[in-house]
Amino acid sequence: MAQSTSAKRIRLRIGGRVQGVGFRPFVHRLAAELALTGWVRNTQEGVVIEVEGGGAEVQRFQRRLADEAPSASGIGEIDAVVLPVEGDRAFVIRDSDMSGQSRTLIQPDIATCDTCLADIADPGSRRFRYPFTNCTQCGPRFSIIEALPYDRGNTTMRAFRQCPDCLAEYRDPADRRFHAQPNACPVCGPSLELVVDARVALREDSALRAAAELIRSGAVVAVKGIGGFHLVADALNAEAVAALRQRKRRPHKPFAVMVPDLSFARDLCHVGPGEEIALTSRAAPIVLLTQRSRAVASGVAPDSPRLGVMLPYTPLHRLLLDEVGGPVVATSGNLGDEPICVDNDAALAKLAGVADAFLIHDRPIGRAVEDSVVQVVAGQMQVLRLGRGLAPAYLGHAAPITALGAAGHLKTALAWVSPAGSLVGPHIGDLSSAAARMVWQEQVADLGELHGLRPERVGVDRHPGYATGELAAELGLPTTPVQHHHAHAASALVELGLGGPELAVVWDGTGDGGDGTVWGGEWLSCTLTACQRVANLRAFALPGGEHAVREPLRSAVGVLTQMARLDALGGHPQYARRLRVMAQMTERGINSPVTTSAGRLFDAVAAILGLCEVATFEGQAAMALQYAAEVAPDEDGALSMPVRRLGERRVVDWEPAVEAILAGRASGMSAPLLAARFHNGLVDALVDVAVDLGAQRLIMTGGCFQNRLLMERAVRALMAAGIEPLWPTRIPVNDGGLALGQAAVVAATATEEEH
Ligand code: ZN
Ligand code: ZN
Ligand code: FE
Hints:
By secondary structure, the protein is an alpha/beta fold. Among the domains are: 7-106, 2-Layer Sandwich (Alpha-Beta Plaits); 108-167 and 175-389, DHBP synthase (Alpha-Beta Complex), CATH 3.90.870.30. It contains 21 helices and 32 strands. Strands 6, 7, 8, 9, 10, 11, 12, 13, 14, 15, 16 and 17 form a twelve-stranded mixed sheet that branches. It has a seven-stranded mixed sheet with strand order 29-30-26-25-24-31-32, with helices on both faces. Helix 19 (671-692) packs across helix 20 (708-720). The mean pLDDT is 93. The structure holds zinc ion (2 copies) and fe (iii) ion.
C-alpha cells in the first residue's frame, strides 16, 4: 500500500481465548477487506497484530476486531501501541513466537459446529459421515494440545500429514478450515476401528455401524471420544444397563445418558430455557435434568428423579447416536473410582471384562478430560464438575505470587494462582487409587508447564489422611495447610472477585476443623488471609468417624444419642445390636469424632426417615432427602432450628427439628413432608444467622449447595430478608473448588507474612 500522510501503523496485543479459534484467519480476512498491510502471529502472550494503512481504516479495523471476533473466541485484554509506518506490501500470518511470559489461555474442546454437522450429513461433501470433521469453530483443543503455541506440530495431530485438499483449506485464508490445527478428512486423518476379542473386526464406517448395532442388541461398547473412553449401552435396555453396573462395580451412582438430539432430551426430561442453553452450548456438558417420562431403564439413575443428559459433541458421537436412534448410557470408561482410560492399549486391557467391543481411533488423546456436569439453579448455570469444554477455567484473580492448590481427597482438581491470573484444571476425582494419584502428579507437571507456572508454595488441606498432603510434600516446595472451609469460602471469594471480609455459609460433608473436631456446618467471616468462625450447627459425635459417609445410620445414632432418643430407632430389631455398639462408641468417645457437619445432619435425617441407611456413593443419603422433599414442592412449613449463643459464637440447634421429625413419624406424617420442612428449617436458620450478624450479603458454598432445593429456597429467603445471595457458578461448590481457595489463601498469606 502506498504511504500517505494519513498512514498509520499500530501494534495490538490481544489476550484471552484467541488461539485455536480461527482468530488469525479472521484477522487476515479483516485486514484484507480493509486493504491494510502488516502481520499477525501467535505468541505466548496472546495474538500480536501489526497493521498499517489509512488512519480511518486502522480505526475501523480495531472496532471490527472486537465486534466481529469468531464466536468461539473470547477477547480478554487488548493493548494498543502506535508505531512508525514501515511500508509493508501485504498482510501475512507469521510463524508463532514462543518467547515471552505465558499469558495465553488454552481453548477447551468445543462441540461440533452446525456447519461441520452439515458437512457430515451431505453426501456430496468429501467429509460425508467422517467422524473426525472439525474446523476453526469446533473440535478438539485442550485434549490434543501438547505444548504452546497452538500449532499442529504441538498437537497429537502431528502424525497425520494433510492431503492436498486439506492442505489447500488449511492455507486458504478465506476457508473456515484455514489454520484449523486438527483439520482432517477420510483421506489423511484419523480413522475408526472396531475391536472385538482383541482383534480388529471392522474399519471406518462399517465399524461405526456395527458398533451401533451391538449397542442396539444390548452389548456394552467402549467408545474412544475426546478426553477418554466412554462405556456405552442402550439406556432403554434394562438388562444392558444392569450388566454395565455389575461389570463396572457401580451399584447405584447415576449414569449419564447421551441422546441423539434435543427432541430426545425433551421426551425424557423437562428442559427449561437455561437448561437448553447449557445442553446446546459449545461445552456440551452433562446437564442434570428432571425426568418426565421414566422411559430410560430404572437402573440408569436408580431412585433418582434427575437424569444427567448430554448431546453428541463430536461427529463420531453424532453419527453413532443417529445409528442407535435413541438414548445411550455414556459413562466414564474406568473401573470403580479409577481415572478414565485414554489410550487404546490401556483401555483394551483394563476394560476387557467390561466392554463387549471397542470403537477406537488413532488420534491420540493428549490428556484425560472427563465430561463436565452442570445444573441450572435459581436461573443460573452451576458447574458441578469441571471437565471437557470448560476446563481449564481461567479467572482474573491476580495473586501476589504463584501458588498451587493441592485439593482434597475425593473430588479433586488442581488450581494455580499467579500474578498473571488463576486457573482451575479438569476434574481428577478420587485419589484412593494409585492410578489417580499418578494423574494428579502428571497434571501438576503438565498444566504448570503448559501455562509457564512455577509455584513457590503449595496449599494443602489440614486433614492428615488426604492423599494430596503426601503428594504435595513430594514436590519439594513449602506447603501450607489451609483450613478446609476457609478454602471453600476463599474459592468463592476468588470467583466472585471479592476481597472480604464477607460472611460465607459453608456446608459440606467433612472437613478437618483444625480444632480436633470435624466441621461442615459453618458460617465464616473471611478474607483470603483471615477466617473467623462466627456460627455453626450444633455438634454431635459420629460413631466410626469417616465410616459414616457410607453408613448414614451412624449419623442418625450420633444425633439421637446426643438427644438421648436412641429408642426412636428401636423399630429395627436386626439393627438393635449394632445400634447399641454404635451408641456405646459414641458415649465413650471411641473413634467418635465430634462434628458440626451439615452433610452428616442430612444423612441422619435421611436415615431416621428410612430413606437411606447404607450409601454406596458419597452424597447418596442427602440426595435421597432432597428428592423426598421435592415431592412436596409447595410445603412451606419449617421445622424449628433456634439460634443460640455460645460466647461470641452462634450455634444453630437442630434438636427441636429432629424431635419434630420423630413425632411426625410416630403420628404417620409422610417422609416427603418432613423432608421439605427440614429443608425449610435449615434455610430459616441460614437466614436468621445472617440477619443476626447484620450481613448485607451471604456467600453460599460447600457440597451441600449442590442441593438445588436448598439453594433455590435459600436464595428466595435471603432476598426476602434484604440480603444479597452469592454463590460460585463456574467453580464447583464441592471439593472440586477447594484447590483454588487453597492456592489463593497461601499466596495471599505468604505475601502478608513478608510485610
Ligand atoms: Zn466446525
Ligand atoms: Zn485430508
Ligand atoms: Fe468440602
